[in-house]
Design goal:
Layout: E1 2-3, H1 13-16, E2 60-61, E3 65-67, E4 73-75, E5 83-84, E6 95-98, E7 101-104, E8 112-117, E9 131-136, H2 150-153, E10 163-164, H3 167-176, E11 181-184, H4 193-205, E12 209-214, H5 220-227, E13 232-236, H6 242-249, H7 253-265, E14 269-276, H8 284-298, E15 304-308, H9 323-336, E16 341-344, H10 349-352, E17 354-355, E18 362-367, E19 370-374, E20 376-377, E21 380-381
Parallel strand pairs: 9-11, 11-12, 12-13, 13-14, 14-15, 15-16
Antiparallel strand pairs: 1-10, 2-7, 3-4, 4-5, 6-7, 8-9, 17-18, 18-19, 20-21
The protein binds iron/sulfur cluster (SF4).
Length: 406
């Protein structure tokens, strides 16, 4: 792995090791950030005139865009539909218009590279105990006020210290690290779509799985192409209210719901994450509506994770989510009919373990990222033979320690 030497080294390795699929918000043109702008619609805006004059080594022409008049271009990857004149930079910061051509500036230059337990994504119904080679490049198409990874998601690729790792090297490094999958994660993978798709195609050929950890803010056409090589996903459902999406995240609800429908229709295993932000996303009635939509459109089997909010970024004055709220939401979702509901970022054995939806027996016991017990036979409950939704190894051993777990 060769380091890129850049002039602006803004992110240290400790920050880069931060986990989380939560993507983010920082400032927009004319605003330096700092105050809570929760009353405003903060949906992404472009950065006029902020692009470089020439492509660089980590530039790649965009895979999906439309050429307009006067050398303007429109990106078709996500619902932001950025229209860029020559010299402009996109809302996600990683795309620019140079002389009428749309370029990604985040192709082969991940700012974060880690090998994680799959449970950290979180993916609890996907090859338990497996190791996942995880990469992220700078940028995000959201602007969440509570971003956990703003140091990388709200930066331009040129501002970060990055690795040089083109798709063949990602695959080679993932195999050398004895990973079972490559995850596109931490910042927002949709904004480095070209890098992700090329890597995922190669990874599939090499026998690796591909995992998308994302806000789900992507158009159907690029998602369908990605689904051809995608094995699993964790998608953040940030709220079940379009107004909250606009104010808290700078996005819209409906495109995210469409992503869930497409993944479901394409048969991709996915899990849903809901970060319970106090004062924004902690209304039981909203959770009830969310569960109703999931049941009606996706069925009861996609795991749902309620995550504890930790004060961060522009919402650093909010309290953490109370444990009681998370437990109440888990009970509520299960009463509504969802089969697998988890609590994350909290030491809660019941909310972290997997229990068979049919017989109620303990299937997977978790202590952090250690999984001392797995009571599955292939994809079935060892006790009642119920089929357990997810991607499982053909035969799962019991009472083994998790390799490489922290
Ligand atoms: S992926 Fe980036 S450039 Fe493309 S539409 Fe979305 S925010 Fe704009």
């Amino acid at each position: 792995m060769k380091k890129i030497d850049r002039r602006h080294l803004l992110v240290g390795s400790a920050a880069l090791a931060a986990t989380c699929a939560v993507s983010a918000t920082a400032f927009w043109p004319g605003r330096k950030g700092g105050e809570d702008s929760g009353a405003a619609d903060i949906t992404g805006r472009i950065f006029p005139g902020d692009g470089p004059a020439k492509p660089w080594k980590w530039s790649k022409e965009g895979f999906l865009y439309v050429k307009l008049d006067n050398q303007r271009v429109m990106c078709s990857i996500c619902p932001n539909a950025c229209v860029l004149a020559p010299g402009d930079r996109s809302a996600c910061r990683s795309k620019v218009n140079i002389d009428g051509v749309l370029y990604s500036l985040a192709y082969g230059n991940p700012c974060t590279v880690n090998v994680d337990p799959v449970e950290k994504k979180p993916l609890l119904h996907f090859l338990p105990r497996s190791r996942v080679f995880s990469i992220a490049a700078a940028g995000c198409n959201f602007r969440c006020l509570n971003c956990q990874n703003w140091e990388i998601s709200q930066m331009k690729p040129e501002e970060l210290k990055s690795y040089e790792m083109f798709p063949p090297e990602v695959v080679k490094n993932a195999l050398a690290a004895q990973s079972q999958a490559v995850a596109y994660t931490y910042s927002e993978a949709i904004t480095f779509y070209e890098y992700m798709l090329d890597t995922a195609r190669l990874a599939r050929t090499a026998g690796l799985k591909n995992l998308l950890i994302s806000n789900g803010y992507i158009n159907r056409e690029p998602l369908l192409e990605l689904c051809k090589v995608l094995d699993g996903a964790n998608i953040n459902l940030k709220a079940f209210d379009d107004r909250i999406y606009r104010k808290l995240n700078g996005g819209r609800l409906e495109p995210v719901l469409n992503t869930f429908k497409t993944l479901h229709e394409q048969g991709v295993h996915f899990e849903i994450t809901n970060l319970v932000v106090p004062g924004y996303v902690d209304d039981p009635e909203m959770v009830k509506r969310m569960c109703g939509w999931i049941l009606a459109n996706l069925g009861p089997d996609h795991p749902l994770h309620f995550l504890k909010f930790v004060p961060k970024y522009k919402l650093d004055r909010l309290p953490p989510t109370p444990a009681a709220t998370l437990k109440e939401f888990r009970s509520l979702a299960m009463r509504e009919g969802l089969h697998y509901v988890y609590i994350g970022n909290l030491d809660d054995p019941e909310g972290g373990n997997t229990y068979c939806h049919q017989c109620g027996q303990l299937l997977i016991e978790r202590h952090g990222y250690n999984l001392p017990t797995i009571n599955l036979k292939g994809s079935h409950c060892k006790f009642c033979r119920a089929l357990i939704p997810g991607v499982w190894p053909p035969e799962t051993a019991t009472s083994a320690a998790t390799p490489g777990a922290a």
